[in-house]
Specification:
Elements (H helix, E strand, L loop, with lengths): L3 E4 L9 H16 L3 E6 L9 H14 L5 E5 L4 H13 L3 E4 L3 H13 L22 E4 L6 E6 L3 E6 L7 E3 L7 H11 L4 E5 L6 H10 L6 E5 L2 E2 L15 H6 L4 H9 L13 H7 L10 E2 L2 H14 L2 H14 L10 H8 L6 H12 L7 H7 L4 H13 L6 H15 L3 H13 L7 H8 L1 H20 L1
Length: 468
């Protein structure tokens, strides 16, 4: 049997973290077993489905590297096939027309809830033999006896008695098929062998199994993946970071890092944290998916991204920095070699956006000093230290980190102060803030000309302060 999995998003919004993880698990399952991964766009909700959402889904899949072997298939292009199957079910007696009004169904629901019963259709039209009319829907005639047994790859054995299920609508009065019908027909026609999806679909599965059986179709295996929760234990939403996958790209995350983070949300292989794409494929097994919900942890995602940034080839990191600076309108020619800046900042940044933020003082002049750092380190007494440094740096021919460090050390000794009393004012004066890599290496990369110019500006700034 050829393994065939599918990812079937609805284009009613962007591809979010939960959907991306479902796609990843389905993709890995197929790749590990030499199968086929199919992309299907479930766009029958015409009011909410948009081309922009379709484009966002396809773009997100491409960015993550989740290549599909077939598709994308669009449900709106398959209405004739759905109508054919609905007629087949009507002809076999496994479906019927129902003309129960919305008012009757509402009253029925109210009575059931008042009696603390599970709201469900009561089969009023089941044996009436009604014909098609403008106000009729088509309902599937669910079996009245027996159980539906799901040997779920994640949840284990799940048993649902057919009495718990009612006769669901499979076609609306205008003939438009409903979700539970279209997904069954698609999985059947596309020979899907394994359905990996969120456990919010678990209630639909016994209904879909009964339709498949009525059609004489082979049943796929199911794996229902628990949802992702926020730190507060509630379902993941925008406030937890459940933004568009492409927003993570724009925020400076690497696709490999996001993939690695997602695969570890509910799946594990021993204690290993970092997985190459090849290792994910080699080790992934749906049986190892945790049966309980996972918690989204932004800090862990940032840590994961930093691990990948630290291993990123210099050329790739440099190109990312160049692209980020250019996007902000920074003149990338007005500064040191970009490779040197990228390597200097590599280990300090957990996103590519942070890399760009950290590099700004190398390529443009800052308007002022970071308030907190200036208050602590740019005091009147710092002027003497900066003047000593300026004089020594002007005479320095060997503009290397070692030589720069020697000047800072010598200045501290001459002034009889600790290194911090010299190094920190120097850092604020030349970078604009109180945080940077080792100041000697930073100044080597920044260059002598810019260093001297910024020292002179800082000295003038302190002189003006003293006169104010």
């Amino acid at each position: 049997m050829t393994v065939r999995t599918r990812f079937a998003p609805s284009p009613t919004g962007y591809l979010h973290i939960g959907g991306a993880r479902t796609a990843l698990f389905s993709w890995l399952f197929a790749r590990r077993l030499g199968g086929r991964f199919i992309l299907r766009i479930e766009d029958t909700d015409r009011e909410r489905s948009t081309q922009a959402s379709v484009d966002a889904i396809l773009q997100s899949m491409d960015w993550l590297g989740l290549d599909y072997d077939e598709g994308p298939f669009y449900q709106t292009q398959r209405f004739d096939r759905y109508a054919e199957v609905i007629q087949q079910l009507l002809a076999s007696g496994d479906a019927y027309y129902c003309n129960c009004s919305k008012q009757r169904l509402h009253e029925l629901r109210e009575i059931q809830m008042a009696n603390k019963q599970k709201p469900r259709y009561d089969g009023c039209c089941r044996d009436k033999g009604l014909g098609q009319a403008d106000d009729t829907v088509v309902r599937f005639k669910n079996p009245l006896n027996g159980d539906v047994v799901i040997d779920d790859m994640v949840k284990g054995r799940v048993v649902i008695n057919n009495r718990e299920l009612d006769d669901l609508v499979i076609a609306r009065p205008d003939g438009v098929p409903t979700y539970n019908l279209t997904v069954v027909v698609d999985d059947w026609d596309m020979n899907i062998s394994h359905v990996i999806r969120g456990d919010d679909h678990l209630n639909n599965t016994p209904r879909q199994i009964n339709i498949l059986r009525a059609l004489g179709a082979e049943l796929p295996s199911y794996a229902h993946v628990p949802m992702i929760l926020g730190a507060d234990g509630k379902r993941l939403s925008k406030r937890h970071g459940a933004v568009s996958v492409m927003q993570y790209r724009d925020d400076g995350f690497l696709p490999e890092a996001l993939m690695n983070y997602l695969v570890r949300l509910g799946w594990s292989h021993g204690d290993q944290e970092i997985f190459s794409r090849a290792e994910m494929i080699e080790f992934f097994d749906a049986a190892d998916i945790n049966s309980s919900a996972s918690t989204f942890n932004p800090e862990k995602l940032h840590w994961m991204n930093q691990q990948y940034i630290m291993k990123l080839p210099t050329d790739d990191l440099t190109n990312a920095l160049r692209t980020g600076l250019s996007a902000r309108g920074i003149n990338i020619n007005d500064g040191p070699a970009m490779e040197a800046v990228a390597e200097l900042l590599r280990e300090r940044c957990n996103t590519l956006q942070a890399l760009v933020d950290e590099s700004l003082y190398f390529y443009r002049e800052f308007d002022g000093y970071e308030a907190k750092a200036a208050k602590k380190h740019m005091k009147p007494g710092a002027r003497d230290a900066l003047q000593h440094l300026l004089t020594a740096f002007e005479k320095l021919d060997d503009w290397s980190a070692a030589a720069i460090h020697g000047v800072v050390e010598q200045t501290a000794e001459q002034l009889g102060v600790g290194m911090g009393k010299v190094g920190m004012p120097l850092r604020v004066a030349t970078t604009g803030g109180g945080s940077s890599p080792s100041i000697d290496i930073t100044l080597e990369v920044l260059g002598k000309i810019k260093t001297l110019a910024r020292l002179r500006r800082a000295i003038d700034h302190l002189a003006e302060q003293a006169m104010a």
